[in-house]
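Posting this for the archive.
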Amino acid sequence: MENGEIPENANEHCPGPQSESAGKSDDCQGCPNQEACATAPKGPDPDLVAIAERMATVKHKILVLSGKGGVGKSTFSAQLSYALAAMDFQVGLLDIDICGPSIPKMLGLEGQDIHQSNLGWSPVYVESNLGVMSIGFMLPNPDEAVIWRGPRKNGLIKQFLKDVYWGDIDFLVVDAPPGTSDEHISIVQFLQATGIDGAIIVTTPQQVSLIDVRKEVNFCKKVGVPVLGVVENMSGLCQSLVDFRFIRGTGTGEQIDVTEKVLECMREKAPELLDLVAISEVFDSSGGGAAKMCTEMDIPFLGKVPLDPQLCKAAEEGRSCFVDQKCWVSAPALKSIVKNLLAANQWTEETAMNE
Protein backbone atom coordinates (compact mmCIF):
# COMPACT_ATOMS: atom_id res chain seq x y z
CA MET A 1 0.00 0.00 0.00
CA GLU A 2 1.51 3.32 -1.10
CA ASN A 3 1.65 6.04 1.57
CA GLY A 4 -1.62 7.94 1.67
CA GLU A 5 -3.19 6.09 -1.26
CA ILE A 6 -6.53 4.33 -0.95
CA PRO A 7 -6.19 0.62 -1.81
CA GLU A 8 -8.19 -0.67 -4.77
CA ASN A 9 -10.04 -3.21 -2.63
CA ALA A 10 -11.02 -0.68 0.05
CA ASN A 11 -14.61 -0.06 1.09
CA GLU A 12 -16.60 2.54 -0.82
CA HIS A 13 -16.33 5.31 1.80
CA CYS A 14 -12.75 4.63 2.87
CA PRO A 15 -11.44 7.56 4.99
CA GLY A 16 -7.90 6.96 3.66
CA PRO A 17 -4.90 5.23 5.27
CA GLN A 18 -3.56 8.52 6.65
CA SER A 19 -6.79 9.47 8.40
CA GLU A 20 -6.90 9.35 12.19
CA SER A 21 -9.97 7.16 11.86
CA ALA A 22 -8.27 4.73 9.45
CA GLY A 23 -9.16 1.17 10.47
CA LYS A 24 -11.43 2.44 13.25
CA SER A 25 -14.30 4.09 11.40
CA ASP A 26 -17.63 2.34 10.84
CA ASP A 27 -16.84 2.61 7.12
CA CYS A 28 -13.82 0.36 7.71
CA GLN A 29 -15.82 -2.59 9.00
CA GLY A 30 -15.26 -5.69 6.85
CA CYS A 31 -12.46 -4.09 4.78
CA PRO A 32 -9.53 -6.49 4.16
CA ASN A 33 -7.13 -3.62 4.92
CA GLN A 34 -8.70 -2.68 8.26
CA GLU A 35 -5.97 -4.08 10.50
CA ALA A 36 -3.14 -2.74 8.33
CA CYS A 37 -4.65 0.75 8.31
CA ALA A 38 -5.27 0.75 12.04
CA THR A 39 -1.65 -0.10 12.83
CA ALA A 40 0.09 1.83 10.03
CA PRO A 41 2.09 4.96 10.97
CA LYS A 42 0.24 8.20 10.26
CA GLY A 43 1.66 11.43 8.92
CA PRO A 44 2.65 13.14 5.66
CA ASP A 45 3.96 11.06 2.79
CA PRO A 46 7.77 11.41 2.86
CA ASP A 47 7.87 10.92 -0.92
CA LEU A 48 6.07 14.25 -1.37
CA VAL A 49 9.04 15.97 0.26
CA ALA A 50 11.39 14.26 -2.21
CA ILE A 51 9.14 15.30 -5.12
CA ALA A 52 9.10 18.90 -3.92
CA GLU A 53 12.89 18.89 -3.82
CA ARG A 54 13.09 17.52 -7.39
CA MET A 55 10.55 20.02 -8.70
CA ALA A 56 12.35 22.96 -7.08
CA THR A 57 14.50 23.24 -10.24
CA VAL A 58 11.48 23.25 -12.59
CA LYS A 59 10.09 26.73 -13.27
CA HIS A 60 6.82 25.81 -14.96
CA LYS A 61 4.74 22.62 -15.04
CA ILE A 62 2.14 22.16 -17.79
CA LEU A 63 -0.31 19.24 -18.03
CA VAL A 64 -1.57 18.28 -21.49
CA LEU A 65 -4.99 16.64 -21.18
CA SER A 66 -7.81 15.40 -23.39
CA GLY A 67 -11.33 14.18 -22.73
CA LYS A 68 -11.09 11.50 -25.43
CA GLY A 69 -8.34 9.42 -26.92
CA GLY A 70 -7.31 9.86 -30.54
CA VAL A 71 -7.57 13.67 -30.64
CA GLY A 72 -3.82 14.22 -31.14
CA LYS A 73 -2.90 15.08 -27.55
CA SER A 74 0.48 13.32 -27.61
CA THR A 75 1.28 14.81 -31.02
CA PHE A 76 0.56 18.24 -29.56
CA SER A 77 2.66 17.51 -26.44
CA ALA A 78 5.59 16.46 -28.62
CA GLN A 79 5.39 19.47 -30.93
CA LEU A 80 4.86 21.87 -28.00
CA SER A 81 8.07 20.52 -26.47
CA TYR A 82 9.93 20.85 -29.78
CA ALA A 83 8.68 24.43 -30.17
CA LEU A 84 9.72 25.48 -26.66
CA ALA A 85 13.14 23.87 -27.09
CA ALA A 86 13.58 25.69 -30.42
CA MET A 87 13.02 28.96 -28.53
CA ASP A 88 16.03 28.07 -26.34
CA PHE A 89 14.00 27.09 -23.31
CA GLN A 90 15.18 24.12 -21.25
CA VAL A 91 12.39 21.57 -21.61
CA GLY A 92 11.42 18.24 -20.06
CA LEU A 93 8.65 16.01 -21.45
CA LEU A 94 7.16 13.47 -19.03
CA ASP A 95 4.92 10.75 -20.49
CA ILE A 96 2.51 9.41 -17.83
CA ASP A 97 0.33 7.53 -20.30
CA ILE A 98 1.37 4.24 -18.72
CA CYS A 99 -0.70 1.92 -20.92
CA GLY A 100 -0.18 3.75 -24.22
CA PRO A 101 3.22 5.47 -24.21
CA SER A 102 3.59 6.98 -27.69
CA ILE A 103 5.98 9.82 -26.81
CA PRO A 104 9.22 7.83 -27.46
CA LYS A 105 8.14 7.17 -31.05
CA MET A 106 6.95 10.72 -31.65
CA LEU A 107 10.36 12.07 -30.60
CA GLY A 108 12.39 9.47 -32.48
CA LEU A 109 13.62 7.78 -29.29
CA GLU A 110 12.38 4.21 -29.75
CA GLY A 111 14.80 1.63 -28.40
CA GLN A 112 16.49 4.04 -25.99
CA ASP A 113 17.14 3.05 -22.37
CA ILE A 114 16.99 4.93 -19.09
CA HIS A 115 20.35 5.46 -17.38
CA GLN A 116 20.95 6.05 -13.70
CA SER A 117 23.52 8.32 -12.11
CA ASN A 118 24.24 9.37 -8.56
CA LEU A 119 21.68 12.17 -9.12
CA GLY A 120 18.87 9.79 -10.12
CA TRP A 121 17.31 8.60 -13.37
CA SER A 122 18.56 10.53 -16.39
CA PRO A 123 16.04 11.59 -19.07
CA VAL A 124 16.64 10.50 -22.64
CA TYR A 125 17.66 13.59 -24.62
CA VAL A 126 16.50 14.55 -28.10
CA GLU A 127 18.56 17.73 -27.96
CA SER A 128 20.73 19.14 -25.19
CA ASN A 129 17.73 21.20 -24.01
CA LEU A 130 14.94 18.63 -24.53
CA GLY A 131 14.81 15.59 -22.24
CA VAL A 132 12.15 12.87 -22.20
CA MET A 133 10.98 10.27 -19.67
CA SER A 134 8.47 7.50 -20.40
CA ILE A 135 7.62 3.97 -19.40
CA GLY A 136 8.20 3.21 -23.08
CA PHE A 137 11.94 3.24 -22.35
CA MET A 138 11.47 0.54 -19.72
CA LEU A 139 9.59 -2.06 -21.76
CA PRO A 140 11.69 -4.99 -23.02
CA ASN A 141 9.34 -5.35 -25.99
CA PRO A 142 7.48 -2.36 -27.50
CA ASP A 143 4.51 -4.63 -28.27
CA GLU A 144 4.19 -5.71 -24.65
CA ALA A 145 0.95 -4.64 -22.96
CA VAL A 146 1.13 -2.84 -19.63
CA ILE A 147 -1.64 -4.47 -17.60
CA TRP A 148 -1.48 -2.59 -14.32
CA ARG A 149 -4.05 -1.58 -11.76
CA GLY A 150 -4.23 1.95 -10.35
CA PRO A 151 -1.80 1.66 -7.40
CA ARG A 152 1.02 0.35 -9.55
CA LYS A 153 0.51 3.10 -12.13
CA ASN A 154 0.49 5.69 -9.37
CA GLY A 155 3.66 4.21 -7.91
CA LEU A 156 5.52 4.63 -11.21
CA ILE A 157 4.30 8.21 -11.65
CA LYS A 158 5.54 8.99 -8.15
CA GLN A 159 8.88 7.37 -8.97
CA PHE A 160 9.22 9.45 -12.13
CA LEU A 161 8.60 12.63 -10.15
CA LYS A 162 10.96 11.90 -7.27
CA ASP A 163 13.74 9.99 -9.03
CA VAL A 164 14.18 11.67 -12.45
CA TYR A 165 16.86 14.36 -12.41
CA TRP A 166 15.80 17.08 -14.85
CA GLY A 167 18.25 19.70 -13.66
CA ASP A 168 17.32 23.37 -14.06
CA ILE A 169 14.57 23.53 -16.67
CA ASP A 170 12.06 26.15 -17.74
CA PHE A 171 9.18 23.83 -18.62
CA LEU A 172 8.06 20.34 -17.67
CA VAL A 173 5.36 19.22 -20.13
CA VAL A 174 3.35 16.29 -18.76
CA ASP A 175 1.55 14.19 -21.38
CA ALA A 176 -1.35 12.49 -19.58
CA PRO A 177 -3.66 9.73 -20.83
CA PRO A 178 -7.19 10.70 -21.92
CA GLY A 179 -9.93 11.07 -19.33
CA THR A 180 -9.91 11.82 -15.62
CA SER A 181 -8.66 8.67 -13.93
CA ASP A 182 -5.97 7.48 -11.51
CA GLU A 183 -3.05 9.02 -13.38
CA HIS A 184 -4.65 12.48 -13.40
CA ILE A 185 -5.56 12.41 -9.72
CA SER A 186 -2.06 11.18 -8.84
CA ILE A 187 -0.11 13.77 -10.85
CA VAL A 188 -2.19 16.59 -9.33
CA GLN A 189 -1.83 15.16 -5.81
CA PHE A 190 1.92 14.64 -6.12
CA LEU A 191 2.61 18.08 -7.64
CA GLN A 192 0.09 20.06 -5.60
CA ALA A 193 2.61 21.36 -3.08
CA THR A 194 5.05 22.40 -5.82
CA GLY A 195 2.48 24.25 -7.91
CA ILE A 196 1.09 23.35 -11.34
CA ASP A 197 0.93 26.29 -13.75
CA GLY A 198 -2.06 24.78 -15.48
CA ALA A 199 -3.44 22.44 -18.11
CA ILE A 200 -3.81 22.62 -21.87
CA ILE A 201 -6.78 20.60 -23.10
CA VAL A 202 -6.72 19.17 -26.64
CA THR A 203 -9.94 18.38 -28.49
CA THR A 204 -11.38 17.91 -31.97
CA PRO A 205 -14.23 20.16 -33.22
CA GLN A 206 -17.22 17.81 -32.97
CA GLN A 207 -19.66 17.66 -30.06
CA VAL A 208 -18.78 14.03 -29.25
CA SER A 209 -15.32 15.23 -28.22
CA LEU A 210 -16.40 18.54 -26.67
CA ILE A 211 -18.81 16.79 -24.29
CA ASP A 212 -15.84 15.06 -22.65
CA VAL A 213 -13.72 18.21 -22.74
CA ARG A 214 -16.31 19.94 -20.58
CA LYS A 215 -15.82 17.15 -18.03
CA GLU A 216 -12.06 17.66 -18.24
CA VAL A 217 -12.49 21.38 -17.56
CA ASN A 218 -14.68 20.61 -14.56
CA PHE A 219 -12.07 18.14 -13.29
CA CYS A 220 -9.45 20.89 -13.43
CA LYS A 221 -11.71 23.27 -11.52
CA LYS A 222 -12.42 20.67 -8.82
CA VAL A 223 -8.74 19.86 -8.22
CA GLY A 224 -7.59 23.47 -8.47
CA VAL A 225 -5.61 23.27 -11.71
CA PRO A 226 -5.95 26.40 -13.90
CA VAL A 227 -6.97 25.83 -17.52
CA LEU A 228 -4.33 27.55 -19.63
CA GLY A 229 -6.42 27.06 -22.72
CA VAL A 230 -8.04 24.70 -25.19
CA VAL A 231 -6.54 23.66 -28.54
CA GLU A 232 -8.84 22.53 -31.35
CA ASN A 233 -6.87 19.90 -33.24
CA MET A 234 -7.74 18.34 -36.62
CA SER A 235 -9.71 21.48 -37.43
CA GLY A 236 -10.40 20.69 -41.05
CA LEU A 237 -8.28 18.64 -43.46
CA CYS A 238 -5.90 21.06 -45.17
CA GLN A 239 -3.77 19.76 -48.04
CA SER A 240 -2.34 20.84 -51.38
CA LEU A 241 -4.60 19.83 -54.24
CA VAL A 242 -1.74 18.00 -55.96
CA ASP A 243 -1.30 15.76 -52.90
CA PHE A 244 -4.81 14.33 -53.14
CA ARG A 245 -5.71 11.06 -54.82
CA PHE A 246 -8.70 11.14 -57.12
CA ILE A 247 -10.91 8.11 -57.63
CA ARG A 248 -14.00 7.17 -59.60
CA GLY A 249 -16.49 4.92 -57.87
CA THR A 250 -18.43 2.15 -59.57
CA GLY A 251 -21.75 0.56 -58.83
CA THR A 252 -19.97 -2.51 -57.47
CA GLY A 253 -17.99 -0.56 -54.87
CA GLU A 254 -14.78 -0.71 -56.88
CA GLN A 255 -12.53 2.37 -56.81
CA ILE A 256 -10.65 3.36 -59.95
CA ASP A 257 -7.65 5.65 -59.44
CA VAL A 258 -7.81 8.57 -61.88
CA THR A 259 -5.26 10.80 -60.12
CA GLU A 260 -2.84 11.06 -63.03
CA LYS A 261 -5.62 11.88 -65.49
CA VAL A 262 -6.97 14.64 -63.25
CA LEU A 263 -3.54 16.17 -62.62
CA GLU A 264 -2.69 16.04 -66.32
CA CYS A 265 -5.96 17.75 -67.14
CA MET A 266 -5.21 20.52 -64.63
CA ARG A 267 -1.68 20.99 -65.97
CA GLU A 268 -3.01 21.41 -69.50
CA LYS A 269 -6.20 23.39 -68.95
CA ALA A 270 -5.97 25.08 -65.54
CA PRO A 271 -2.39 25.11 -64.21
CA GLU A 272 -3.31 27.78 -61.64
CA LEU A 273 -5.24 25.09 -59.74
CA LEU A 274 -2.00 23.26 -58.95
CA ASP A 275 -1.11 25.94 -56.39
CA LEU A 276 -4.40 25.71 -54.51
CA VAL A 277 -4.93 24.19 -51.08
CA ALA A 278 -8.10 22.18 -50.46
CA ILE A 279 -9.86 22.33 -47.09
CA SER A 280 -12.49 19.86 -45.96
CA GLU A 281 -14.39 19.79 -42.66
CA VAL A 282 -13.75 16.20 -41.59
CA PHE A 283 -15.50 16.68 -38.24
CA ASP A 284 -18.82 18.44 -37.80
CA SER A 285 -18.13 21.88 -36.32
CA SER A 286 -21.59 23.32 -36.92
CA GLY A 287 -22.02 23.63 -33.13
CA GLY A 288 -19.28 26.26 -32.99
CA GLY A 289 -16.42 23.95 -32.05
CA ALA A 290 -13.97 24.56 -29.23
CA ALA A 291 -14.02 28.34 -29.63
CA LYS A 292 -17.71 28.57 -28.75
CA MET A 293 -17.31 26.15 -25.84
CA CYS A 294 -14.47 28.27 -24.43
CA THR A 295 -16.62 31.38 -24.60
CA GLU A 296 -19.45 29.60 -22.80
CA MET A 297 -17.14 28.21 -20.09
CA ASP A 298 -15.04 31.39 -19.80
CA ILE A 299 -11.71 29.70 -20.48
CA PRO A 300 -8.96 30.70 -22.97
CA PHE A 301 -9.06 29.41 -26.53
CA LEU A 302 -5.49 29.02 -27.79
CA GLY A 303 -6.22 28.27 -31.43
CA LYS A 304 -6.85 25.69 -34.12
CA VAL A 305 -4.50 23.18 -35.76
CA PRO A 306 -5.61 21.81 -39.15
CA LEU A 307 -5.53 18.10 -39.93
CA ASP A 308 -2.26 18.05 -41.85
CA PRO A 309 -1.01 14.74 -43.28
CA GLN A 310 2.53 16.11 -43.13
CA LEU A 311 2.21 16.69 -39.38
CA CYS A 312 0.98 13.11 -38.98
CA LYS A 313 4.02 11.96 -40.95
CA ALA A 314 6.38 14.02 -38.77
CA ALA A 315 4.91 12.34 -35.67
CA GLU A 316 5.32 8.90 -37.25
CA GLU A 317 8.94 9.67 -38.11
CA GLY A 318 9.69 11.16 -34.69
CA ARG A 319 10.75 14.64 -35.79
CA SER A 320 9.85 18.26 -35.25
CA CYS A 321 7.40 19.83 -37.67
CA PHE A 322 9.29 23.14 -37.42
CA VAL A 323 12.65 22.20 -38.94
CA ASP A 324 11.63 22.30 -42.61
CA GLN A 325 8.81 23.49 -44.86
CA LYS A 326 7.01 20.16 -45.13
CA CYS A 327 4.46 21.08 -42.43
CA TRP A 328 3.81 24.53 -43.86
CA VAL A 329 0.08 24.11 -43.14
CA SER A 330 0.23 23.06 -39.47
CA ALA A 331 3.55 24.48 -38.22
CA PRO A 332 2.44 28.16 -38.35
CA ALA A 333 -0.77 27.26 -36.49
CA LEU A 334 1.21 25.48 -33.76
CA LYS A 335 3.67 28.38 -33.52
CA SER A 336 0.77 30.78 -33.08
CA ILE A 337 -0.67 28.65 -30.26
CA VAL A 338 2.68 28.52 -28.46
CA LYS A 339 3.06 32.29 -28.89
CA ASN A 340 -0.44 32.82 -27.44
CA LEU A 341 0.38 30.53 -24.50
CA LEU A 342 3.62 32.32 -23.66
CA ALA A 343 2.14 35.80 -24.06
CA ALA A 344 -0.95 35.06 -21.96
CA ASN A 345 1.22 33.87 -19.08
CA GLN A 346 4.03 36.41 -19.58
CA TRP A 347 6.55 33.60 -19.68
CA THR A 348 8.57 35.20 -22.46
CA GLU A 349 8.99 38.40 -20.49
CA GLU A 350 9.86 36.52 -17.32
CA THR A 351 12.58 34.56 -19.07
CA ALA A 352 13.99 37.72 -20.62
CA MET A 353 14.15 39.33 -17.16
CA ASN A 354 15.86 36.29 -15.68
CA GLU A 355 18.47 36.39 -18.41
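The mean pLDDT is 91. The radius of gyration is 23 Å.
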